[in-house]
Amino acid sequence: xxxxxxxxxxxxxxxxxxxxxxxxxxxxxxxxxxxxxxxxxxxxxxxxxxxxxxxxxxxxxxxxxxxxxxxxxxxxxxxxxxxxxxxxxxxxxxxxxxxxxxxxxxxxxxxxxxxxxxxxxxxxxxxxxxxxxxxxxxxxxxxxxxxxxxxxxxxxxxxxxxxxxxxxxxxxxxxxxxxxxxxxxxxxxxxxxxxxxxxxxxxxxxxxxxxxxxxxxxxxxxxxxxxxxxxxxxxxxxxxxxxxxxxxxxxxxxxxxxxxxxxxxxxxxxxxxxxxxxxxxxxxxxxxxxxxxxxxxxxxxxxxxxxxxxxxxxxxxxxxxxxxxxxxxxxxxxxxxxxxxxxxxxxxxxxxxxxxxxxxxxxxxxxxxxxxxxxxxxxxxxxxxxxxxxxxxxxxxxxxxxxxxxxxxxxxxxxxxxxxxxxxxxxxxxxxxxxxxxxxxxxxxxxxxxxxxxxxxxxxxxxxxxxxxxxxxxxxxxxxxxxxxxxxxxxxxxxxxxxxxxxxxxxxxxxxxxxxxxxxxxxxxxxxxxxxxxxxxxxxxxxxxxxxxxxxxxxxxxxxxxxxxxxxxxxxxxxxxxxxxxxxxxxxxxxxxxxxxxxxx
Length: 601
Fold this sequence. Notes:
Number of strands: 49
CATH architecture of the largest domain: Sandwich
Structural class: mainly beta
Helix content: under 10%
Largest sheet: 9 strands, antiparallel
Shape: globular
CATH topology of the largest domain: Immunoglobulin-like
Distance between the termini: 52 Å
CATH superfamily of the largest domain: Immunoglobulins
């Protein structure tokens, strides 16, 4: 017999009415007979360490006096009345407790302005909420456990704020490589940050998501959204079918403010470069460019200051950023020179909150690797035994692209599908005379050409990969935006030519599936790809742009096709959708513009 629970209140008495088609049973909620959860004591003191453990908070079950689900949330505070309590996590059962990591507690204490390395008394408690079908029953007061305490010593770390993800062509539509907008007010409403679209961005399309997936907010443009270039503000749609945001194409960096409740995206400012000018470089506005750290949006550069003096930050060689209000505050277009003493420093500039920018100098960070800041090792590493891919390998490309004589920028490669052994780079600006190598895990291993200056070919596998090896060269015919493909199964490498992209092998328009070129037949082919929906062909891993003279290929509108029979493609055509979905071999003939899709054996 199905029972439906309703909450009835009269004065201070609450009742749950459980109703069936045959009878009505009234179950009264009486707060006087409830039992609060009992929280067990923990150790008297803890010294938190980055990446370490804190404790599991164990507690007994709450009892509301009636059959109901409950949600248990752990809170911490430095005030015993929990007036500034910070959530540490929640569960739907009392059986396993709530395990709290050191980083979670440390971040909560940072929100409470606790100093690192200084012990502080922290209070903990559990609050149990009565749950309805999908949310707490707001009219029933949470049951609060006893309070326990411990002396906690936080560690020095950067505060982690709630964030939304900015994902687009600039990061290969890969949620592991996105930019972020941060809620510094921690109100889950206002999100601020600087997005780097890259120095060589050819496709500025992007969206926002609420998590590292497409299921928690998929915010793009709709039919009624303004298409005005560089629009000060646009309204987004939360719809998987919404379009990519493409209003902002004039600058490399953009500062955005996203208002979650109204889905409003505000463009605050766009710029192309941030530098540091001071006495140490003769106040040259273009001598010391800064790089952005993807994970927190801050800019940084290492500088050896040989004499006391002053400096300022500079935007686009014209807007000076000097001293400002607040601790480490700076003013955009205002302020005096910032004093600096002799030493080796990492200079940081945070422009995420455009109204309250800050800077920091760190001698301890000078010369240290940045998790995604692109610091390569220019020393020749020891030759590995072979160029095979080690377990957990992360392959990348380094060279003198865009004048990078120090080979300091790492162009990471992505393995897709996972475990396939096929790694594809992001777009790299190839120019005649450039040299490069492939490296694994920041030069732990490297592979290169059999002979100095060997060049790669488009769609044709290079067979001479050598451990250590010589530098690859770039010929005039290869100049342009290119992607490189490494096949670790047979140790070959080539430049991406024609590829498939779409709803393939668990992907959804995020990764290229490379095709290989047959010089004898003039055809491009790919074997055993799982077609689960629509797809297209595209050239060099790019859609049609002013820099790409060979557009994508698709079906003429309304044209049917048969598996096993060649069918015509057209430039800029519609999606190709095999029926039924399945695993297919495909051959593309550019000469007669046909694609043949056959069932893979």
